[in-house]
Every structure is written in structure tokens, then in C-alpha cells.
Amino acid sequence: MKRLGRRERIVREIEALKGVSFEVEHGKVLGVVGANGAGKSTLVRTIAGILPPTTGRIEVDGRVSTLL
């Protein structure tokens, strides 16, 4: 017997990281805190080049993060 369950996919358009801009000096440490859904994981994924930004760009050591 096979069972099929009902599946749903909810798609929401959320503007994550809107207007975020900061610089971290070489040798410094930056902590990111915030509530659930605030965009912390999105920020890290974007910095790592896993998630491309829809506008603007992220540079790490003068190189665009999507090229790292």
C-alpha cells in the first residue's frame, strides 16, 4: 500500500537584508544577532557567495563574493 500525503508549498516574497551596509576591518570580529527570520543566515549565505544578491554586491578583501 502506498500513501500519499497532501503537500503544500508556500512561497513568500520577503526582502531580506534591505539597506544593509557595513565594513569590517581586517583582524576585527563581527557578531550578528537578531530574532528568528531577521536574515542572519541569508547574510552569511550571501557573503559566502551561496546566495547571490538581487541588487548591490558584497566584497571580501576587494573581491566580489560570488567569485570566491
In words, what does this structure look like?
This protein has a domain at 30-68. 13% of the residues lie in helices and 6% in strands. The protein is built from one helix and two strands. A two-stranded antiparallel sheet has the order 1-2. A hairpin with a 2-residue loop joins strand 1 (59-60) and strand 2. The mean pLDDT is 80.
Give a topology summary:
Elements: H1 40-48, E1 59-60, E2 63-64
- The ordered H/E elements are HEE
Would you tell me the structural class of the helices and strands? little secondary structure
Oligomer: single chain
Q: Quick one: overall form? A: elongated
The number of helical segments is 1
Strand content: 5-15%
Please give the alpha-carbon distance between the first and last residues.
Answer: 49 Å
pLDDT < 50 runs, ≥5 residues? none
Query: Which whole number gives the mean pLDDT?
Result: 80
Strand arrangement, major sheet: 1-2
Q: Percentage of helical residues? A: 10-25%
Profile the largest sheet: 2 strands, antiparallel
Strand runs, count: 2
Radius of gyration: 17 Å
Key traits:
68 residues, little secondary structure, elongated
Quick take:
By secondary structure, the protein is mostly loops. 13% of the residues lie in helices and 6% in strands. The longest helix has 9 residues, at 40-48.
